[in-house]
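Batch 3, record 17
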Amino acid sequence: MYANSRVPQSAQTGIHERLAELVDRHRREPFRKPVLDYNRAAFDAAMAAWSERGNEAPLILDAACGTGASSVLLAERNPDCFVIGVDQSEARLTTGKGDLPANLHLVRADLVDFWRLLAGRGARLERHCLFYPNPWPKIGHVARRWHGHAVFPVLPQLGGLIECRSNWRLYVEEFAFAMGRLLGREVGWQEFVPDEPVSPFERKYRDSGQALYRCEIDLDDRRGAA
Ligand SMILES: C[S@@+](CC[C@H](N)C(=O)[O-])C[C@H]1O[C@@H](n2cnc3c(N)ncnc32)[C@H](O)[C@@H]1O
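Prediction for the assembled complex:
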């Protein structure tokens, strides 16, 4: 049945006690896992599509875009930008593929490699969306949440307006805490009500009557998003 989704259940009641130590370790020790060939090929294809549109177009990354519905919306709302939607699930991406806006490229890749390739190329993002990442709510799974993962320190290097949304308050609280620790400044988060859901998961959670949370940080210290 639709609209009966549940908020992630967790024995964890506050910011994970190991999170600060994990973030500090990941910042100290560069992540050296080799990049896989299929991710490099996907990255090269995405960069080629971007350059076909003219490399001047500001870049929006829809990280873990699922079906890409949010990527389509971002592309339509930001016609001057080029949007790359990345998801590791071919099945999800295929569900979404129809006629795509010309300023959008959907690609199957593992973000752990895609993010590092972007940073290695010196790419700067205009906007960076992490809509409803898998929450990994079990206490022992903290290192699978993006902010507990070794790749996390790469994210602020990409700049732009970065936004994480979740229906699990603790995920967003932790994201803000971890980003604040990397940036050396206070980072806030808030509950919000979407006017128009940006993605299928947002729609499902909203229609299930759940509270939604987001953390938005302007890494370039500019203001405003379209
Ligand atoms: C809960 S869904 C959210 C999808 C979409 N953002 C939305 O809001 O509807 C989480 C998505 O993250 C993707 N994902 C998880 N780990 C990933 C990774 N390492 N690289 C790329 N995509 C990943 C999954 O395939 C899945 O589509």
